[in-house]
Write a structure and sequence with these properties.
The chain is an alpha/beta fold and 369 residues long. The chain contains 12 helices and 16 strands.
């Protein structure tokens, strides 16, 4: 009997089976037992990652047609697709492309011959769907299951908007002096506090700002992904922010009830479109079915996009008040940075935009293709 055992675990696992077995590890855990032939091949995996890179990027970018068809456009020219993490093809967040490459390795190593049985252990529903769409198998068995849940995102989204609403309410009645509207500002530097303030007084990426007419554009609440400060903790963090030497404008202080409510309505619209219109057809790449993976990518992307759109009006208001000559921001290549690029180029093209790159570029970094 020809058995393929696929496990997604970061711990070693017992694989005591009476038959000879082909083993493939999605995680770092290794199988323990006899008569095991591992078919993992990191060199081949790397080759496939490069081979299918451009095709996969075209495949993901083709989703923009659905966004345009469903009028997911702002200011009549900005497709919301390009402001999503899905369009960023973030392999550190999404396992879609890595799954494709893993399955290509499996097909190559098994010679694409018929298998008698495939056993999935601790694999996600999305992976199992993709694997069974391309691996020829007479029987399969699932031992444990790792779910990628998109339904829980609605609860997370409700919690986020409630916290932002509560924090904004507290801020209105606080005595913090936050706005530096009366100061001439030539250069604005977008940052997140305290995430990027290692020494407490200056941003660790920009370093010391030497221009006398410069200020930080600071967000504390941000989109709730990289840091989380709400309620009394939010006010305590503002008190610490007030102690830095460089002038700043707190982006969060420009949020209104209307901004928060409108963004939540955006999310409900996105969610409705996702369930009833966007993912109504099977999505295949090189014969591999990707429905569940793409559904999760769009679910996560819409959750984050709605949060980021909440800041559009405050950002534009600040630009109108300060009229800076330059705007510095990172990570310009990801969704939040693209939001700045899109809306500033559309509304304030005279402002010079200076983006800071994320880090070393790899030929496998899909974002850059």
């Amino acid at each position: 009997m020809k058995i393929l055992y696929i496990c997604d675990s970061d711990e070693d696992y017992d694989l005591s089976i009476d038959h000879n077995v082909l083993s493939y590890q999605l995680g770092t855990g290794k199988p323990i037992g006899e008569n095991i032939e591992s078919i993992n091949d990191s060199a081949l995996l790397n080759d496939f990652a490069l081979q299918f890179r451009d095709q996969y990027c075209d495949f993901i970018n083709s989703l923009n047609k659905d966004f345009l068809f469903n009028n997911l456009v702002i200011e009549k020219k900005i497709s919301l697709f390009f402001l999503t993490d899905c369009s960023n093809k973030r392999t550190e967040n999404f396992r879609t492309y890595s799954t494709i490459c893993h399955l290509m390795v499996i097909l190559k190593k098994t010679g694409n011959n018929d298998l008698d049985k495939v056993i999935f252990k601790n694999c996600s529903n999305a992976f199992i769907e993709s694997a069974l769409s391309i691996i020829k198998v007479k029987e399969h068995r699932i031992s444990k299951r790792k779910n990628i849940s998109s339904s829980a995102m609605f609860g997370r989204q409700l919690r986020f908007f409630f916290r932002v609403l509560y924090s904004s309410f507290l801020l209105k009645f606080s005595k913090n002096n936050l706005r530096h509207d009366d100061q001439k500002i030539d250069s604005l530097y977008f940052t997140r506090f305290p995430l990027h303030f290692d020494n407490g007084s200056e941003d660790s990426i920009y370093g010391k700002i030497k221009h006398p007419n410069s200020a930080y554009l600071v967000s504390i609440m941000t989109d709730g992904i990289h840091q989380s400060f709400y309620g009394k903790k939010f006010l305590t963090t503002i008190a610490k922010l007030n102690k830095i030497n460089t002038p700043f404008i707190l982006l969060d202080s420009f949020l209104s009830l209307s901004d928060i409510f409108k963004s939540f309505i955006y999310y409900l619209r996105f969610k409705s479109l996702l369930h009833f219109r966007l993912v109504k057809k099977d999505l295949f790449f090189e014969g591999i079915k990707l429905n569940e993976y793409i559904f999760y990518e769009l679910s996560y992307s819409f959750m984050r996009l709605a949060r980021q759109l909440m800041y559009v009006r405050p950002i534009l208001d600040i630009m109108e008040i300060t009229r800076p000559k330059e705007f510095h921001y990172y990570l310009f290549e990801f969704s939040f940075g693209r939001l700045f690029s899109a809306f500033l180029s559309s509304n304030y093209p005279q402002i010079k935009r200076i983006g800071y790159q994320h880090g070393p570029i790899s030929r496998r970094k899909l974002l850059f293709f």
